[in-house]
Amino acid sequence: MAAVTMLDPASRSFRWLRVGVSRPQASTFFVPWLVGATFCIAVMWALPGDETIPYHVAWTGFALAFGSRVWSNRLTFAALVTFTGVTGGILVIRVGQGVLAWQETAEIPLMSGIMLLLVWNVRRRQDALSRVTELAEREAQHAHDEELLTRLTSHELRSPLTIATGYVDLMRENETDAHKLEDLEIIRHELSRLSRTADRLIWVMRLQVEPSREMVDLDAVLKEAASRWSRVTPRNWVLDCEGGTFLAAPERLRVCLDTLLENAVRYTATSDTVRVFSSRRGGVVRFGVADSGMGMPASQVVLLNRLGDREGTTDPLTPDSLTQSGLGLSIVRSIAIARGGRLVAERAPEGGALVAVEVPAEVPVAPRAQPVR
Fold it and tell me: For residues 357 and 257, what is the distance between their CA atoms, to the nearest angstrom?
């Protein structure tokens, strides 16, 4: 019962908020108008023949007061009906006394109608503002919920995978049986694959949130990514960077590069060349990875270019024994499209595959990311 009592005041406040004002705010503007309207009515009664001036002054005050702070429905109805009835009665009496011409009575429905239109327009404006505010609050809450869901998902997926991988590593260190070591290696490989899949699923979730952009030195990011990969993956690494700086989301840029580098490493051997490149031409920034590996069939190159400017959750490449989650290129594609660009594929000069991202150097007018479908 106590809980219900505590909620009652909030419910009453919310009921007043739905009409755009709380009780103290309504009285702040209503009471001065009521005082002024009463004075105008007294002047109308005291000065026969001069009724129209105080009459219009009172209605003007009503428009100012109501427009400044919307009153409740009950208060508005009472003010309109009471003031129209009292002032209309005075005008009718003056017409009966011959003080005013009968045409003056047209002011009664005319001014009342104008005020009703004012009330309707102000309330419509308030309703529109309320809807916009509600939508903005929902969008902010949705973004917050998505971020929270992403963090929880990341924690729930990565923590057990990290623990399981640690236990497998411990078992490998203490195991001497060759067959068991082979089994443990398979388990570790699958855990590593599952971890990469989890990371990419989390990135698919993050793509729904609009990123913050800043001026990024593309060439520096490319060099940093190549340096990281070259430390752990023996390849003939080549840098060909002439992209300069442009407005981008640094984290998404690094995800694109890591995904393209991972694909290149997966389809190359230690003796192959992996070239990380960037360029700028005609207002378009182009960056990507080329290699001297096994490359892609011509049909897959055509398919990837045809789908390069479309959203999707599946990798357009035909699955094979080296394929991981099937989400890699779809994430890169979605990031490129969110930035107003596209994903392209070619045969690399080195003989293997070349996959690149092309985006405008300037941010498009509406760069909002669309949901990945």
Answer: 9
